[in-house]
Amino acid sequence: MKIVVCIKQVPATNEAKIDPLTKRIVREGLKAVMNPFDAYAVEEAIRLKEKCGAEVIVISMGPEKAQRCLREAVSLGADRAVLLSDRAFGGSDTWATSYVLSKAIEKIGQVDLVICGKQAVDGDTAQVGPGIAAHLDFAQATFVMKVEKVDRRHIRVQRMRENGYDVCDIKLPAVITVVKDINMPRVPTLKGRLASDEIDIPIWRPEDIKADIEKIGLDGSPTRVVKTQPPKARSRKTIRIEGSPQECAKQLAQRLREEDSISGANI
Amino acid sequence: MRITNLNEKLQYEDVWVVAEMLLDKIHPVTYELLGAARALADYGASRVGVIVLCSKEPENPTDLFAFGADKVIIVTNPQLKGFLDETEAEIIIRLIEKYKPEIVLGAASSRGRALIPRIAVKANCGLTADCTELGIDFESGDLLQTRPAFGGNIMAIIRSPNHRPQMATVRPGVMKSITPDYSRKGEIIYEKAKLNNQAAFKRIIESITKEENAVNLTQAQIIIAGGRGVKGAEGFDLLRELAAKTGGAVGASRAAVDSGWIPYEHQIGQTGQTVQTGTYIACGISGQIQHLVGMQSSALIIAIDKNPDTPMMQMADIAVVGDLFEIIPALVREI
Ligand SMILES: Cc1cc2nc3c(=O)[nH]c(=O)nc-3n(C[C@H](O)[C@H](O)[C@H](O)COP(=O)(O)OP(=O)(O)OC[C@H]3O[C@@H](n4cnc5c(N)ncnc54)[C@H](O)[C@@H]3O)c2cc1C
Ligand SMILES: Cc1cc2nc3c(=O)[nH]c(=O)nc-3n(C[C@H](O)[C@H](O)[C@H](O)COP(=O)(O)OP(=O)(O)OC[C@H]3O[C@@H](n4cnc5c(N)ncnc54)[C@H](O)[C@@H]3O)c2cc1C
Known about the structure:
Chain A is built from 7 helices and 15 strands. By secondary structure, chain A is α/β, with parallel strands linked by helices. Chain A folds into 2 domains: 2-215, HUPs (Rossmann fold), CATH 3.40.50.620; 232-267. The relative contact order of chain A is 0.16. Chain B is α/β, with parallel strands linked by helices. The interface between A and B is large, with 87 and 98 residues. Strand 15 (239-241) of chain A pairs parallel with strand 18 (318-321) of chain B, so a sheet runs across the interface.
């Protein structure tokens, strides 16, 4: 079995500070890390490899420094890594990003399963996974919380819904996107770390994956970000309520009524 | 479709809503999407269509007219009982090719987030996720789509100038439905689904639905969320009491979920759900960044904590200093 895991490099929010004025997170100068959801995708691939034997290949489209996330995945047990990096890929929206990733998956060849994270914490669209499936005309299962079993033709998964889950058999080749409760990612071993230091990560350009230049980057993207702006700041000053619990509760209930917060209450 | 000239662009007219179906019932978010679609259609003097895919004829499809639809396109097939992403996508793509809508809206639900991106890629058009505002650009007539990204830290305005239809998803609870007018009339169109071997992609073995008041954080108008300060599963009973009294839902921090006090479905934050609710009451949650990104866009934020200096107490609109085990029972009595 051949499994490809897609990893996106995103800014780390861990060390982010809050702007005292806007009460929003300051994004500038943040370190780049593996998208937190993709750690679960990597872990699931390695578990499948341990259970039924598989080759795990991790891929990422991004700047050269995105290699770091790929090495991290290798230190955890991925067999190979490929970086898709070129100026021409820059500015890709989810349509173009999933196109580039799908072309890389075609080049890798004979891929049975593609695993993505549920969503990236920066772009936040959750569109790339199903997008890859659409480009390749693979079957898909999103928000997978458990892989029950795999054979040569099918994978049986539990996929999450708002009020429950479906158990489905998905025909391979397929794309799945995974949520956090699918597993508990491991930490790298020393041996894994050494392997990841040594591994050679090839960089693929558009011509390497036979990507149609009209379908990638800013020009190949149907969506355009026209403008970005900070959301409306929380302009209110914090009102502090202190005193005895009864006094606090009385004041808070009063505020809730004034704000019309509990108009829908079933009192 | 990629558009190369104005004539091509003008062929695309209506505003469509892909109905959110739940076991052949129309989910309420559909009416919210209709409210948004109606406003866009009125602005551009076009019509609103709704696509309904179901295994058997839905009850009261004419309700959709009352909520703003001019046209309802119904596709029934016994196989469409569970959610078959690949099949539904193929059907809707064919309808798009046939009718050429200018705009297609879908719910940013677990179903919509799987289905709509598949359609967008295959129909070769742009898709904007989780829009909070939709408008029409006066000059170009393009759809202007506003969406939060980076956990609500920036708002992006997105356009798809050279592709039609323009597609967008909207989270439940974000748009408003119109006051229904049951005298409004419309047209019902039945379309056939040719299913070929699409169904071979996926077979649904069983669908488990949790009865116990389904966690519907994204639709709740008020959320009572608990963190490590709640100290245990029993503490959450207290929050549930307050939630019941206020008609709200219960949320949690990762610390509470990881301690096993409450299931993951309740988790709010970077690795949980993102909510944008009317009133968010954080009880014993210190407000680490990973939690804040999941709730900071709520309209009114209230924090209850012993420690007045936590990030949550500082960002909150109302910060109540004290022991939640004393304050919450008192609050339940007050309202
Ligand atoms: C503010 C802002 C708003 C945006 N809004 C939209 C929008 O509404 N519509 C749109 O089409 N584009 C949008 N984009 C562009 C979009 O963020 C990029 O296309 C991005 O490359 C992928 O989207 P995502 O971050 O949403 O990933 P998601 O679709 O959320 O990612 C899901 C999974 O796909 C995989 N994946 C995603 N990107 C990569 C990658 N580069 N390499 C390897 N694996 C990957 C990972 O497994 C990840 O967990 C926006 C960008 C910005 C900056
Ligand atoms: C990659 C990553 C992803 C993460 N994703 C998430 C996420 O999605 N969601 C999330 O929530 N976290 C997430 N976290 C964890 C996050 O960093 C924090 O650890 C977590 O949010 C802390 O939860 P807490 O506020 O409940 O606990 P604490 O920080 O321990 O806060 C408990 C609070 O309760 C107060 N308290 C105690 N007793 C009482 C009392 N009797 N009355 C009133 N107040 C009391 C204390 O003063 C304190 O302020 C993530 C972390 C990482 C690294």
